[in-house]
Write a structure and sequence with these properties.
Blueprint (H helix, E strand, L loop, with lengths): L1 H36 L8 H34 L5 H8 L1
Length: 93
């Protein structure tokens, strides 16, 4: 049993470590660019800021959308339906 726990823990650490590294490599430069081109920033550029801001806001919502789809059956079990404002309370909570 401890072998399974050890293996699962190492796999989890592996996934977290490398996803963090990739997030820093890909997201770090984008964050720096956003900071530089923001209104009132060092090199203000509203067009670049708006485009990057829009892309980031879309990408940030994807994990929640996936979770919402996965939680549809639980919503249906708890509130009797899987779509609508009442059903959306379950994944939001």
């Amino acid at each position: 049993m401890f072998d399974i726990l050890k293996t699962a823990s190492l796999e989890t650490l592996y996934m977290v470590f490398f996803s963090t590294i990739f997030a820093l490599i890909l997201g770090g430069p984008v964050a720096i660019i956003l900071y530089i081109v923001k209104p009132g920033g060092l090199r203000e550029n509203k067009t670049v800021f708006r485009v990057l801001d829009f892309i980031i806001n879309i990408l940030r919502s994807i994990p929640f959308i996936i979770m919402m789809i996965l939680v549809f059956p639980l919503s249906k079990l708890i509130v009797g339906k899987s779509i609508g404002s009442t059903a959306s309370i379950v994944p939001l909570a």
